[in-house]
Amino acid sequence: MRILFCNITYMTNYCGVDNEDRVSKYGGAWLKEHLDGKDVGEVYNFQDYNHSCYGFVHIDGQIHIERFEDVKSNAQEINNVLVVWCAKADDIDNHVIVGWYKNATVYRFEQAPGAVPSLGRDLYYRVKAKAEDAYLLPEEERMFVIPRASVEGPGRGMGQSNLWYADSEYAKMEFIPKVVTYIESYKKKYINIVYDQDKLTKTLDSNESGQVLEEKAGDLFEEGMSKEEFYQALCLINTAISKTDSNDAIFLRGNILKELNCFDEAIAVFEELLNREGDVQDLLEAIIYLYAVVNKNDKAIETAEKLMKFFEDDTEATCELYSIIIDAYDRKGEYQKVIECCDKIIELTSDKDLREFVMEHKKHVMEWIESVK
Questions:
Q1: How many other CB atoms are there within 10 angstroms of residue 122's CB atom?
Q2: Which residue blocks in the chain are alpha helix, DSSP H?
Q3: The pLDDT of residue 37
Q4: φ, ψ (nearest 5 deg) of residue 221
Q5: Which of 28-38 are b and which e, b meaning 16 or more Cβ less than 10 Å from the residue's Cβ?
Q6: Residues contacting residue 154 through CB under 8 Å, at least 6 positions apart
Q7: What are the residues facing 163 on neighbouring strands?
Q8: How many CA atoms lie within 13 A of 145 on its CB side?
Q9: pLDDT band for position 19 (50/70/90)?
């Protein structure tokens, strides 16, 4: 069995830092020093982000995946790994298991595909799993102690690194079987939220009219500051739509799904409305960044080009659309197209900082093209 132990900062929910959930002083020093403990990888390790969880662990350099059996030395990723997340809270003496990913993909190097921050957060990670394969324990159930090599001896626990490959004879023959038995026999609750179809289509038992429910959902959406509030708004709007199939209600549902990071479902909602209403500006603006974040690059380019007709007299808005196109062509590896769009921005924009940024980007792209000839 492929198993990897990862030491991270201690949190309750791992869905971002807020007033109720902050990083611990153990394992959180790097986060606090560099990014004030906000919007960094491991604080989101159990957030359902478009039906995946993206795990981060702070290490220098690479994860040596070649240490696992039957993995080639030049492999860049491996699949079907049990990743066990460990942490030490401020008020306990030991490092304990806080959760795990089953069937995870572990990458040799940090991944940074460039998600759109306006849709949730920057995205960088070292491990990825389906959200349905991620399991976060309630705090009262975090009792399985991970030994430390400094106490138990070499190969008998985690060392100074935040990674433990557990490939010693003791680990393979004695400790790993105990961990696997614990994980497989655990039948109590988990606290991470997985947005499956049952949860996303939930309706409420209400006698109120569709219009009233839509207004309540809209108010909650506008006031929403947490995923819980946005989910309450989703249940309200689902109920409203079951009573009245208005385009406004469907549009609100798409925006709520976007706030819940359910990007595929939000895209489906907005595409349904585009089929109903045609190329309406607010719909195109709602969907374009969603296409970008899920790497539907051709769709993002097509949508940007459609939006340009609404901004014929607004050169800066046009330049922003060209920026989206540039990112899409970057992801597609069509670098000559990137250069052409850079030239468009350089020609149009009156923003000195943007022009300099784009010129620098164009320079790097041209250097890359030359380096691979």
A1: 14
A2: 29-35, 149-152, 169-170, 176-185, 197-200, 210-223, 227-243, 247-259, 263-277, 281-293, 297-307, 315-332, 335-348, 352-371
A3: 46
A4: -65, -45
A5: beebeeeeebe
A6: 168
A7: 6
A8: 9
A9: low
What is the radius of gyration, based on Cα positions, of the chain? 24
pTM score of the predicted model: 0.89
- Beta-bridge partners for 104: 81
Binning the chain into helix, strand and coil, the percentages to the nearest 5 are 50, 15, 35
Residue 91, pLDDT score: 79
The residues, ordered by sequence, that sit 6+ positions from 45 with a Cβ below 8 Å of its Cβ are 8, 14, 53, 54, 55, 56, 85, 99
What are the two backbone dihedrals, phi and then psi, of residue 239, each rounded to the nearest 5 degrees?
-65, -40
Looking at the DSSP assignment, which residues form a beta bridge with residue 135?
A: 100
b/e code 208-227 from CB counts within 10 Å (16+ = b): eebeebbebbbebbeebeeb
Measure the CA–CA gap between 63 and 324, rounded to whole angstroms: 32
